[in-house]
Amino acid sequence: MPAAAVKIVRTSKSSTKSALPPDPDERRAAGKALRDRVSRQQHSEWTPPKDRRNPVDMVIESSKGRIPELVPIRYGRMMVSPFTFYRGTAGLMAADLASTPTTGIRAQLCGDCHLMNLGGFATPERRLIFDMNDFDETLPGPWEWDLKRLAASFIMACRSNGFSKSDQRDAAQICAQSYRERMAEYSGMQALEIWYQVLDVEKVMASLRDKVSRARLQKRVQKEEARTVTEHDFPTLAEAKGGKSAIKDNPPLIYHHQVLNSPANQDNILQAFARYRETLPDERKVLFDRYQLMDMALKVVGVGSVGTLCTVALMMAANNDPLFLQIKEANRSVLEPYVGKSVYANQAQRVVTGQRLMQSASDIFLGWTVGKGSGGRHFYVRQLRDMKMKVLVEVFNPTTMIDYARLCGWTLARAHAKSGDSSMISGYLGKSNVFDCAIADFSMSYADQAERDHAAFLEAIRKGEIEANVEH
């Protein structure tokens, strides 16, 4: 049984293997009973433990094993604001969340669930949907942790946009309320019905009350739907070199690194691609085999991921038939010290499985591989761009931020309902706003903590303890 699943079948001397699992109402009652052990108000608590580690030390430790010349870029992105610092410190928050109360109900977690790790992308049927899109830290764990990180990220984003304290709190509380209300809906659905749930772009646009925001999204959707790899991505990312197509250098964001292009590594790369191919379904192998690897280059991505090995591969099926794949290194989840090791020895398989479990639809080229030798690096593979739409939080007004908070809470509830026990979680949450208010309280307090940690991080840079490279 996968580690993400919550086993709820009760056994007794008279039970048999064919016994039906407990009724949803029974599971809701069990969830409600958990309040006696962990009250909903307890989730409002955030007090730094006395033995809390120095946040700067934890940031430095999290850079071990990364490409050395890229680490200053990571720090440069983190120093920009408390919000960017927050986005780059999932490990720090995981350690903090481990000291907070939990119900004991587990689900598959994103592990780095902040509002910038959700967005739009295309399904294999070319349908534009909204969903979670970053699973580097995914592992089964307490469902509360994802929601707390998500809600607190709204406080950080609101502060970054200069919103009032009441708007900040409203965004976090609406996020939790949406999660609670949608989880109640999922608790009344059949298991297969939950797996069929999807948030398409029409639902997203309908959820936006601000006309300007809705028009802006409509324009972006139309632009993405008109994009093609051949007409848009290929001219932007590739060029002709020596009679063949190659990836354009754009240092320090995309460039040809000696590790990738040394003759000694060519055989290792080809073998890694062969191992990746074996993780694809047979029909996808037929499609993949139409392409030939032409070039690879290093790519700098995100905030927290900067410095991990991430590459772009240019594949060609014909002169005017390109495919760009992103190959990204997967390390151990930051949740692992607190929730236990993954059942998958390959960390990339952990990422891929978690992604497929939480998303309503995943990329057709999603798979994993491993580098040469017993200590080879683990990588997962997917298309580089597939109508992917990044959320422009910086231009949100308070109304749109709250609408987005409601959307994100809904999305997280759907993702958790696929792997966790929606009836037990819903029973615990109840129908009142007690839990929502607790999460808002926690989020405000934890945002203050993140600001203090960011200030300590800046001080370390000023003292020369950390080298940061600010991009222009």
Write a brief caption for the model.
By secondary structure, the chain is α+β, with helices and mostly antiparallel strands.
Provide structural commentary:
With 472 residues, the protein is α+β, with helices and mostly antiparallel strands. It has two domains: 272 residues, no CATH class; 156 residues, no CATH class. Helix content is 47%, strand content 14%. A hairpin with a 2-residue loop joins strand 9 and strand 10.
Keywords:
six-stranded antiparallel sheet; 2 domains; 19 helices; disordered N terminus; alpha+beta; 472 residues
Distance between the termini: 49 Å
Bulk shape: globular
**Major sheet: order of its strands?**
7-8-9-10-12-11
Helical stretch count? 19
Unreliably modeled segments: 1-16
Average pLDDT rating? 91
The main pleated sheet reads as:
6 strands, antiparallel
Domain module count: 2
Question: Using only CA atoms, what is the Rg?
Answer: 23 Å
Proportion of helical residues: 40-55%
Structural class of the helix and strand makeup?
A: alpha+beta
Number of strands: 12
Beta-strand content: 5-15%
